[in-house]
Amino acid sequence: MLPAQQKKTIRIEETHSSLREATIFPPGIEILAAQLYDPHTSLFSGDTFDALAIRREIIGGLGSLLTSHGVTVRDLRGAFAASLQPSSLSPQAFLEKVAATYEGIPIDQAEQLLYQEAFHYNSMPHAIAANHALTLEHALPLGNIIYQCDNSGVIHGYNFKGTMKYPIRQPEPDVVAQGLMQMGYGTLFPIEGVFEYADVAFIDGAVYIGQDVGYGMRTSAAAIHQIAGMIDAPVYALVLTGEHVPAEQEQFAHIQSRMHLDLIAKEPIEGVLYGCPEICCDIVVEGRNEYAGTQQEGFYEHFRGMQHREIPIEEQQALALNMSGTKRGTVVVPSLENETTVQYLHDDGLTVVSPEFEHLPKLLGGAHCAIGELARFD
């Protein structure tokens, strides 16, 4: 680890500039364990997925795609594993412990994940240590940490540490921070309340943060208030009303489809805002600091100076808006099958590429969720 005076700084200069360096967090046994819980606990869709395929989609799909576009890709899971004391357990003893803790876990898949990770890091003791930490050392397995972008992020020079809403995710920010420190990055700035970075968007020089009032998005009013008081730029909260929330028995799945701002609205190119009208019409935009004032406006009234692309609700629920730029003019989308969204992107002059995720979306996340940005500048 580097001495304190040599710590690196995460550098994000502008949303549409080129992504230079990023992290991925390949999955391990923890996602098999998390899959055993109901969707209210796991935060997964409830659909059966192939954990080994997800590992391939992250490393060989997303990681390779980013590398081919000039992005330096860092393995954050590997950094976390390297920060741990090597385990003294044998593979058999560890897998027996996993099987005893999680009745019904597909132990053959767990074994394959463990051995793939050991081969990847050239260290079985470190692979066991990482899987032990992520699967056995907390009240719930950290299956969602594959979406590590939620756990930290830069807003106007401050690298904030996330604080997660749901119990299964609450230990994740410490894991991410430990991995980043192993990679040579400094301490993350703490936030009070709930703060998940996927709720943050930068549009036209202002900061927009999705606020949780029970109908989607997860960041709390207290966290937004703290950030708004620190940032020398307009800060707005995007608040979802409950006007179009369905019947009680369907609410959780519905709210999960609106869980973060990066699933709801996106500006993939300057001056053009992509969003799903059925959701955006329920959003109220509220100023939260002296630069933004105290105005309250509807979503389309507030963004009336921008061009709008209307994304069908079916594509929004298929994670179409969970996209991320690689270099100026190029965007990574979860799937090319979201035809309306992809056509809009082409019409707006963007090059569209995709790792064509098949299994990853069953964990309710896409390209943007799975990328941790370390450097973005031109």
How would you characterize the overall build of this protein?
With 378 residues, this protein is of the alpha/beta class. The protein is 32% helix and 19% strand. It contains 14 helices and 17 strands. It has helices at 29-34, 39-42, 51-68, 76-82, 91-101, 107-121, 124-135, 172-182, 221-230, 251-256, 277-280, 299-302, 313-317, 339-347; strands at residues 11-12, 19-24, 72-75, 152-155, 158-161, 200-203, 206-211, 235-240, 265-269, 272-275, 283-287, 296-298, 307-310, 324-325, 330-332, 351-353, 372-376. The strands form five sheets. A five-stranded mixed β-sheet has the order 6-7-8-11-12. The protein has a four-stranded mixed β-sheet with strand order 1-17-2-3. It has a three-stranded mixed β-sheet with strand order 9-10-13. Strand 4 and strand 5 form a beta hairpin. Helix 4 packs across helix 7 (124-135) and helix 4 crosses helix 8. The longest helix has 18 residues, at 51-68.
